[in-house]
Specification:
275 residues, mainly alpha, 75% helix, 0% strand
Length: 275
């Protein structure tokens, strides 16, 4: 049944409103980072920049520790993503294929990790890491990020493995393929959209994490972008040009990641949600 024209117009208007709500903040951040200071703080904001300058980026990269914070974030986020994939892929396959006592109970217990706010376990984790000598260490951030990304990653990959026809796996086993070989050569390529979705999720989670990074890391040299950048802003008395330049650069790694695996990420979320 064809929808009336007015409902189509309403739908288009709602979509345009959502796009504007999402896109306009990014536009103001990106364009504000290249505006002259006087234009940034002008009484009437300009949608299209009337001036152009790179002084905010020069100050950010040359007169602050922002490049060091970016490097720390890249290391933590990349290692967290790799470890999450390395653990989630075999775990998701095991929960799908292997039969062992307490499988469903253990699977539900893993998902319960999202039922508790992360702030609840902040103090106990800090005490554990202090005894292990991991406080003020990037290793602590990696462990935290993996722990919080893993439940969702296992759930999504299990859904993907469950959606792959069992006949494909059985044919590979009949040809003499060992379980690990079947997983590596058959199941992982077929579950590529789900793996891409998990990679993006794990990377963004680690890249934007602030609470644990602000508590676990004590030295300035090991701070990540969210924590270190907040200190830079306070140091410069809220220099709006500096703030917008730092915000623009901070989203660059995520944009690059989406450029490579974005289509698989969308496919992974949509396919995994209905399986």
């Amino acid at each position: 049944m064809k929808r009336p024209l007015r409902w189509n117009l309403i739908l288009v208007a709602v979509l345009l409103l959502l796009v504007a709500l999402i896109a306009l903040p990014f536009w103001f951040v990106l364009t504000g980072s290249i505006k002259a200071p006087a234009e940034i703080i002008a009484r009437e904001p300009t949608l299209v920049p009337q001036s152009f300058t790179l002084e905010h980026y020069v100050k950010l990269l040359a007169a602050s520790d922002y490049p060091l914070y970016m490097m720390n974030s890249l290391i933590v986020a990349s290692v967290s993503t790799v470890l999450t994939l390395a653990l989630a892929i075999p775990a998701g396959y095991a929960f799908f294929r292997m039969s062992f006592r307490g499988r469903e109970t253990l699977y539900r217990a893993i998902l319960l990790a999202y039922a508790f706010p992360s702030i609840v376990i902040l103090i106990p984790l800090f005490g554990i890491f202090a005894k292990l000598g991991l406080v003020d260490s990037r290793v602590a951030l990696v462990l935290v990020n993996v722990a919080f990304s893993l439940p969702f990653a296992i759930w999504l990959l299990r859904s993907f493995f469950a959606g792959i026809p069992t006949e494909i796996e059985e044919a590979a086993r009949l040809d003499g393929g060992a379980p690990f070989t079947v997983l590596r050569r058959i199941m992982i390529p077929l579950a590529a959209p789900g793996i891409a979705a998990v990679a993006v999720f794990a990377f963004v989670t680690a890249w934007t994490e602030y609470v644990f990074a602000s508590v676990m890391i004590l030295s300035d040299a090991k701070r990540t972008v969210p924590v270190g950048f907040s200190g830079i802003i306070g140091q410069y008395q809220i220099d709006w040009g500096l703030l917008l330049a730092g915000a623009s650069l901070s989203i660059l790694p995520v944009v690059i990641l989406f450029a490579f695996v974005g289509r698989w990420f969308v496919a992974g979320l949509t396919e995994g949600a209905v399986k």
